[in-house]
Amino acid sequence: MFFWIIAYFIAIWLLGFAIGGAVCSFIQLKFASKERWPMTIALTAGLFCFIYFVFEQALHVPFPPGVVFEWLGWAE
């Protein structure tokens, strides 16, 4: 459990909230929970769409970009 908390924190810090959360969810569903590919992809896509459309588009919550995107100069 402690590993997953740290992994989510690092992924969100590096990639941003929407992408980092989706990547960690994908990894956890596929490798830790051993879900099948269609279910893993559907849940990951649903999570990303929920975070993006509800929090970023509808509520305008200003999530900072990930550190990787700032290093590459891709931050908004």
Short description:
The protein has one domain. Helices cover 76% and strands 0% of the residues.
Keywords for this structure?
single chain, 76 residues, mainly alpha, 4 helices
Shape descriptor: globular
The number of distinct structural domains comes to: 1
| Uncertain spans | none
Distance from first to last alpha carbon: 33 Å
> What characterizes the major β-sheet?
none
What share of the residues lie within helices? over 70%
Question: Strand percentage, roughly?
Answer: under 5%
What class do helices, strands and sheet pairing give? mainly alpha
Helix-strand topology string: HHHH
- So what's the oligomer here? single chain
Tally of DSSP β-strands:
0
Number of helices: 4
Computed CA radius of gyration, to the nearest angstrom: 13 Å
Mean pLDDT: 92
Explain the overall architecture.
The protein has about 80 residues and is mainly α. It has one domain. It has 4 helices and no strands. It has helices spanning about 1-15, 15-30, 35-60, 65-70. α1 (about 1-15) runs antiparallel to α2 (about 15-30). The longest helix has 22 residues, at about 35-60. It starts with a helix and ends with a helix.
